[in-house]
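Exercise 7. Given the encoded structure of a 294-residue chain, write a plausible sequence.
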């Protein structure tokens, strides 16, 4: 039986890509019974009963990860688009996205848009934050309106990878996609100033070939809670904490009130940014306060 990859899901159909052709398929009823659902990005086994008819997805191969919102599997990295102005740069929201991505083992690329709207002082401040996140180990790029170098900046990062776009609304995700894939011609939502976010226009999930890789044109991340993360796992979602965890006196140190904590010491000496530690504490409290699941 042939194997392929689901590149699009729409109106109950799955569009399976296999060696340059796309086959429209239905999922087997057995998936529903098992509570399984084929996702865009899944590698599947499918069958075509007769020429010209729809296919049937018979088997879903094991995934390396899967997201609920957007519903997509086998993601390598996320292009996190955050504006530095209109709406203003939101540090805690950025860290929230980074934690969710790290928990799914998805590599984040931070893309700061609308750099041209900043004053000289604001530019210096944003460049300092860019330096901080690069030192943590993240890829960080800044983009400008009608940036002629944008494709060149992104092409080597996208090649051979499956990338999902994420970030606040109204920050230029559709503009970015339009630059990468002009034929998409996505409507860019005007910013809703009352909410400080844009009106999102994308409706279904689809993987599109761009720069030698696949980019997911998705309705974006709407789930940024930490329901799937246990308090002991949060350290691993902060790379600069994770690197120091073995230096803490106590195994499984939560970096709260424990003595001889290497993370707290690094914050004291300025080797870990105070704002990152404060965000960690806030997220940890959120996880601790979470109602137990039965």
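Solution.
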């Amino acid at each position: 039986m042939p194997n392929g990859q689901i590149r699009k899901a729409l109106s109950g159909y799955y569009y399976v890509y296999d060696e340059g052709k796309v086959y429209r398929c239905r999922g087997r009823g057995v998936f529903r019974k098992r509570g399984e659902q084929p996702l865009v990005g899944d590698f599947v086994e499918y069958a075509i009963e007769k020429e010209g008819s729809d296919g049937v997805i018979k088997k879903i191969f094991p995934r390396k990860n899967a997201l609920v919102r957007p519903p997509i599997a086998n993601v390598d990295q996320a292009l996190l688009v955050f504006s530095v102005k209109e709406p203003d740069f939101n540090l805690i929201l950025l860290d929230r996205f980074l934690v969710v991505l790290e928990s799914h083992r998805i590599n984040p690329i931070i893309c700061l848009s609308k750099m041209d709207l900043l004053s000289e002082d604001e530019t210096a401040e944003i460049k300092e934050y860019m330096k901080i996140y690069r030192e943590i180990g993240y890829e960080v790029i800044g983009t400008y309106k009608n940036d002629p170098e944008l494709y060149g900046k992104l092409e080597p990062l996208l090649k051979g990878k499956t990338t999902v776009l994420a970030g606040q609304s109204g920050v230029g995700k559709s503009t970015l996609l339009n630059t990468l894939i002009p034929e998409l011609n996505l409507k860019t939502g005007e910013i809703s100033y009352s909410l400080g976010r844009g009106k999102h226009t994308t409706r279904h999930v689809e993987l599109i070939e761009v720069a030698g890789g696949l980019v997911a044109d998705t309705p974006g991340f709407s789930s940024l809670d930490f329901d799937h993360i246990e308090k002991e796992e949060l350290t691993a979602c902060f790379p600069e904490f994770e690197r120091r965890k073995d230096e803490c006196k106590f195994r499984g140190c939560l970096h709260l009130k424990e003595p001889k904590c290497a993370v707290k010491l690094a914050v004291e000496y300025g080797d870990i940014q105070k704002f990152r530690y404060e965000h960690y504490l806030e997220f940890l409290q959120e996880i601790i306060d979470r109602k137990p699941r039965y």
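Remark. The chain has three domains: 3-62, 72-217, 231-288. Students should compare their own answers with the one above.
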